[in-house]
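Format notes (please read before filing issues)

Several people have asked whether sequences and structure tokens are stored in separate files. They are not. Every record keeps both together, in the order shown below: the sequence lines, then the token lines. Line labels are part of the format and must not be stripped during preprocessing.
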Amino acid sequence: MATVSLKQNISLPQGLANWLVRKSNEHSTISKIEYHMGGRVALLGTSLRSLAEAVSRVVIGCLALVGYLITLGCWQQAQNFGMEQMQKGNYAGSVSFSCFRSTLSPKELVNHLQSTKAKASHLVKPQGQLTAEMRSKRVRQGTELIAGKLQNQFERAQNQAAQEPDKDFQYLPAPADFQGHAHTEQVPGYEAGICHFIGRRLTMEDEHLTTSFNLNVGGKIYPIQLFGIFDGHGGGQASPYVKENLECQLHKTLNEFCSAGLTDEAIWNALKITFVRLKGEFNEPQSGTTATVAMILDGKLWTANVGDSRTILDNGIQLSEDAKPTDTHYRKGIENRGGMIFCNRVNGNLAVARAVGDHNVGAISARPKITVYPVAAIPKGSHLILTCDGIYDVSSTRQIAAAVQTHKDRPAAELAKNIVYSAYQANSGDNLSALVVKF
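Then the structure lines:
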């Protein structure tokens, strides 16, 4: 039987879904509803199927979480899977209860019709696009509008840094036998030091990018330096995908939006759409990644951030804002896209409010939050620091900035390695990655 999926793999029969939506459009009062026995039987059947699904998902979820606890928190995939099943089971239970009540009361049927109509608004439109997807691809116009958005986002990042408490982090020199892999990569005009360490996880899902390319705008060549940290989750597919495809997609999108000139409006939109397209072209349903990216173009340092990885300067200026589901600013967007916050996670599963990938979770946008900062305001010898959230689980922006500033004469790779080692010593339980760029 054909079905229409309403949310998180919970489905109603095609005929029943069509009948519900049609009735919700035709009738606005209880007295006008034709309460057919056929509809009640169909709702009862859906209620029983949803109840069976709810029970099975909760049982499976509990077993997965038991496995996570037995491994003392090392089996991260079990936790993610268990939380996902519990969330889906909870939703299936709510559908079962709603359908059952609808078979007993015309008033409850009205509520069910209204709920179904609201959920149906998230179904595929005739053109094959979701309303949420269409919003993610929107292009904003207006110099003042973009300037205001850039300023607002910069202020949000500073407020987050100001409110963040210091933690257990203490900057320590990494010993010779530390297994974190550190090395140096040269980008024209900049020295970049990188360190990755698997830490206390079973798998390593972090990636980084350092590269450069030229942008031709009206016959004038603009060199671009690009740096990024990508913190993957749900498998190792998403972060390598973004690493391998970001430069090409960004170059293409910048050419598209900057054809009439290199403006903040054009660059802002190009960065937004680049990540939306990366998400749209990534086909692995389970995997996802954060991305914190710094781009130097025409004397400006642009930061695009998706998720909770972070970019800062060693003077304590935070250039990105962590996108967490618990933040009311991001919660509203998640709910508008049909999601919910359960156990401080998106749909009970994902601990970040934005990501590239995570198609199975739903309600996740890949549109980055963007800031811009003048390169001229960054003193020579300063450092740009990009890290995954595992670093800031045990530190603050102030602590990392102060550590780098105090040891600013050391090579970038050494700074990156010591940051990672120090976070590990402070008992961070995540993969650990740091990218330090010396100006």
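For reference, the curators noted about this record: The chain has two domains: 3-123, 132-438. The chain is about 45% helix and 20% strand.
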